[in-house]
Here is the input.
Amino acid sequence: MRHRALLTVSAAALIGVTSLVGTTTAGAAPSQTGQLHSAKVCGTPAAGHAACMSVVRTDAAGKPLATTTPSGFGPTTIQSAYKLTGLSSGGRTVAIVDAYNDPTAETDLATYRAAYGLAQCTTANGCFRKVNQSGGTSYPRTNGGWAQEISLDLDMVSATCPDCKILLVEAKSSSFANLGAAVKTAAATPGVVAISNSYGGGDASDGSYGTYYNHPGIAVTASTGDSGYRGGSYPASSSFVTAVGGTSLKKDASARGWAETVWAGAGSGCSAYNTALPAAVTFNTRCPKRAMADVSAVADPYTGVAVYDSTAYQGSSGWMIFGGTSVSAPIIGSVYALSGNTSGYANALPYAHASALFDVASGSNGTCATAQWCTARIGWDGPSGLGTPNGASAF
Here is the structure.
């Protein structure tokens, strides 16, 4: 029998951690106490393009905070919080799709894994592979912001599924046409069981872009965004993907050892274009079409993750702390790899096994006409979906 863990956070449990809770805006954003700041890494995308969904901790002036040693959640935390410790994928491959080139991707990955005592994942040992959107090795131009995104994604796969192989596919630009071509290249690569997309743009129709993301038998995950309740965001609003929202994750004295609430920046909403997931119909989303999110994981930059990136951007490089639904999408993609169960459309699987998730039942990401679109509750809600991983059995 599957048992669902209901997460609630009492006022007492929050004492002493309120300085870690806050919202995120496009510039340097103070936390609710004004002590911490963060900023989106990518700006607002042009029509037909996507922005990365990473958020970096900054100083008061908006400069990313970089150190010489890791700070923020690492592999032990991720595996402990989501009951993944000791699980193995058997060497399945998670593909990461991003725009532009990160020239230091492999060496940065080596630094991250060495810092946490993980086995090396390199081109030489067959664990890591990097290609362009056509599958070749002529890479696009470097972009420092997307390089940070790439490092974040690679590190989260490593933290969640240390024995997973990793395929990095770099699109030549952030257009949906190029990113979509990269997704198709990833899907055609033998061994790939999950494809993580930590980017998004405005709501769009599967009639325009769906062919890029329609890959039954492969778990395709996508970030719901970092601007709170806003409506649809593509490709998370696609009927073919698992839309991944975000939470705040804090250590506590519960049997689980961790508590989660909705992250105020987690994207949610209803698509104006794409059909509802058949599996979600009984969960009272009240969206006439596609509702997002489906599931979630940590994304709050004030309960953020450690990432190593040496391609300087905005004057910073080294160890930094990141949040955003760019964190949660590769975590969920990696959990699918750990489960080994990606038959059919993988976004249906959590709905069939919702009791095997940690239900996130408190917090909000804004105001909306229908409460569950922006406010956590028992069961499905927009910001956290059905909840967060409790092992891999829901996937």
Remarks:
- The two ends are 16 Å apart (CA to CA).
- The chain has eight helices and 21 strands.
